[in-house]
Amino acid sequence: MWRNWLKGGCFIVDSTRRGKRFPDSMSKTIPIWTCVLNRSISKHLNKIHGSSLELGEPSISDVLAENGKECAVGWDCSLHLPLWVSETEKAAIEERLEEWTKQLEDCGADVATLASILRKPLRPLWISQRSVIWLNEVPDHDFWDFTPIILVNASSSTGVVQQRTTTEFSWNYISGAGDDEESWARGLTPNLFWKHAHDLMSSGPDVCNQKVAEIVEKDRVYRALRGNDAPQISVKSQKGSSTQVPPIEQMLSFDISDAELDVKSSDGNCGLSWLGLTRLAVGSSQYAVTACDIDCILNCDQETLSVCLPVASAYLHLPLVMSKLDRFSLSRNLASAVDFAKLNLNQGKRLLVCCSNGEDISICVCLAILTSLFDEEGTFDCGKSFNNTLITKLEMKRRLVYICKFATNARPSRGNLRQVFNFLSGGRTD
C-alpha cells in the first residue's frame, strides 16, 4: 500500500478483487489497529499522569490539554468499523481489543513517541469510486476532533477487470500485486517518485517509461560517485570513547524511546544500521564494499561482493530470494547464517548482514541471529539461553521491534518472518 502523510492525517490506497467493496485490510485490519493504538496512547497518558481513569472517560481531557492535545471530549478509544461489518463480527472483535492492546505493549512498541506526536485520536474513513463527497460541506481538518486515516479503494465498483492491448503500456490487472513494486516500478523508489512527482505526472504516458529510466539512472550514478569519492558509512568502534549509545540499549526489553541514538547507527539514509552494542549491523549490499570497521560480512544478496577482508573465512555468501519466489529459501540457509555469526561474534568480531535492499531478507537473518545467540539482556551467550527457552511469537516480535528501532527502513515480509519463526521454534544451536 502507498502511504502519504498529510497535515494531521494519512491516505492509504489499496485495491480489492471483484465483487468486494473494500479489502479486508481496510474493513477490519486497519480499523482494529487504529483502535488498539488509541487505547495504548490513552493508557500511556493515564499512566504518566498517575490516573486510574477508564479508557475514553471525558475527564481525560485534562490530561490531553496538558500534553497539547486538541480534543475536548476525551481520547476516543472506541472501535470504528464500516457499516457493512455485522454487529456479531464487531462484538467478536471488541472482545479481543484488550488482548491486542496488551500484546502491543508487551512487544516493546514505542507508544510514548506516538503519544507525544499525535494531537488527536485516530479514526478511519472509507472512500471508493462510488463515494459522493460535497467539498463545500467538508470542514477544514483543524476542526475535526480526530486524526483521519482515509482508506481509498482504487478498484472499480463494477468488478470489471480492465486491460489495454494496443500499446506498449498494455497490462492485465493482477489482484494483490500492488505491493510487488519490483515487478512494475522499473527501479523507481518512493523517495525518487516524490522527489520527481511533478515531472512524472506532467510528462504523460508516452514518455513516462523513458522519464523513469532517466531518473533511476541519474540516481544510480549519483550514489555510485558518492560511494567512490566519499564513503557514506562511518562506524564508531565499540571500544572508542566517542560511542554515544547508552548502556540501557544492551537490554532486549529495549525501552529506548528517550535514548539519544547515534545518528549514523539509526539513519536509514546511510545504508547501514548498527543494532545497539550487539556488534551486529544490517544494511544494503551496495554499501558493504565501503563499510568501515567491519570484520566479517554475511552477504544474502543474489550477487557476490568484491570485498577486502583480513581472511577469506570472514565472508559468507548465501544467495537468498524472497518468499514469493521460494518459500523455503530462507529456512534452508538460516542454520548456516547463525553458525557463521556464532563463530565470528564469539571472537569479538563485528558482523554486517546485508541483502539487496537491507529491508527484508537481511532483517530476517539478523532476527534469527539476535534471537538464537543473545539472551534477554542483550548479551551474546553463544545460544545458551536460546537452547533453554521456548521461543514464542511474542518474543520474536519483541526482538523485531528492537531491530526496527535502529533499521528504520525495515519491512520484512510475512513469508520470510514465518520461515524465521519456524526455524526458531524447531531449531537449536549446538
TrEMBL record:
Gene3D superfamilies xrefs: Protein tyrosine phosphatase superfamily
All copies of domain Rit1 N-terminal, residue ranges: 7-217
GO molecular function per UniProt: pentosyltransferase activity; tRNA adenosine(64)-2'-O-ribosylphosphate transferase activity
Signal peptide start and end residues: none
A single BP term in Gene Ontology: charged-tRNA amino acid modification
Coiled-coil intervals, chain numbering: none
Stored InterPro entries: Prot-tyrosine_phosphatase-like, Rit1, Rit1_DUSP-like, Rit1_N
Protein name: Initiator tRNA phosphoribosyl transferase family protein
Source species of the chain: Cucumis sativus (Cucumber)
